[in-house]
């Protein structure tokens, strides 16, 4: 409880310890488990500082590897250094995010009552196009088992989000139902095409049906540097450009995909959230789709039987960035029922001060609206109390 308001963190992340893969993967996959590889091992500190400047004195973040290749695409040494520098400024504790105890201490310090946890390295391992589907499913299975143990430390405050692999649509429902048996109410998938299939591909229809049947919400979460077709990746190679473009553009395309492909029409009780891209894109994108639908409705009449904005208002949610200018204007344009708060902690984008920014929303909005953003809406999306 913070200043009389409860806070539900809709988008918090774990930092998975590398050793967990050999512990939780099935035996046949452990020998080829992911590992970390140090960068520039033959370079002296003086040479590194001369090449990279004062920040080069920081220990470089090791690179996540699988089968001798980097797991992250287009992630330069300089980008790694800048992320390491930002993290060093935000977190004095190098173990930030890696243990449930650390998260609980952070949540207690900042006044976060409950949090839903999303993957970090597991996201990228599940987003390698062309990976053997059985192996991708094994990664998802292992991660979900590990996260269940992570959350058992305080299952009321630490809530799990099941991570799914889209490589084999036939395996999706089984893992969905397995994590539902944990008592979890939400799963996460990428917005990007996997194996040439978008989210509205017919092969995924049993998955969407199962989500609706079990009242499992679906979070759409982009990850810069995933080895999947990504908006902007055909034009840019810097993290600066990829991060700026991939998150909002992929979420815009994912929402369009679910509407144009008829997923939201066929599954009116499905709950979908679009995370970590802010909310400023939503009013424009809904206006753009509605305007186009006005004179092109006949082309998509089988799948889209109402204005796109009506689908969004009925069953979609989006996380806000409290520092984002214009959040109050988005509330004015859309109302307050489809927005929810998330910190992205402990990633480099935000520090603990994001909670202060969230509380500062009270300066421009009523307490009733802020209460919806910080608790009521995320609780409704995540099925808290049901």
Describe the secondary-structure layout.
Blueprint lengths: L7 E6 L6 H5 L2 H4 L4 E3 L7 H8 L10 E4 L2 E2 L6 H14 L9 H11 L3 E5 L2 H5 L7 H19 L6 E3 L1 E2 L5 H13 L4 E4 L15 H10 L2 E5 L17 H22 L2 H4 L5 E4 L5 H16 L11 H8 E5 L6 H8 L4 E3 L11 H8 L6 H16 L4
Parallel strand pairs: 1-5, 5-6, 7-8, 8-9, 9-10, 10-11, 11-12
Antiparallel strand pairs: 2-3, 3-4
Average of pLDDT: 92
Distinct helical segment count: 16
Radius of gyration over C-alpha positions, nearest whole angstrom = 21 Å
What CATH calls the topology is: TIM Barrel
Enumerate the spans where pLDDT stays under 50 for 5 or more consecutive residues. Answer: none
Largest sheet at a glance? 6 strands, parallel
Q: Care to count the β-strands?
A: 12
What is the domain tally?
1
Gap from first CA to last CA = 21 Å
State the shape.
globular
Structural class: alpha/beta
Examine the secondary-structure arrangement and name the CATH architecture.
Answer: Alpha-Beta Barrel
> Helical proportion?
40-55%
Instruction: Name the CATH class.
Output: Alpha Beta
CATH superfamily: Metal-dependent hydrolases
In percent, how much strand structure appears in the residues? 5-15%
Order of helices and strands: EHHEHEEHHEHHEEHEHEHHEHHEHEHH
Largest sheet: spatial strand order = 7-8-9-10-11-12
Structure in words:
By secondary structure, the chain is α/β, with parallel strands linked by helices. The protein has a single domain, classed as Alpha-Beta Barrel (TIM Barrel). The chain contains 16 helices and 12 strands. Helix 8 runs parallel beside helix 9.
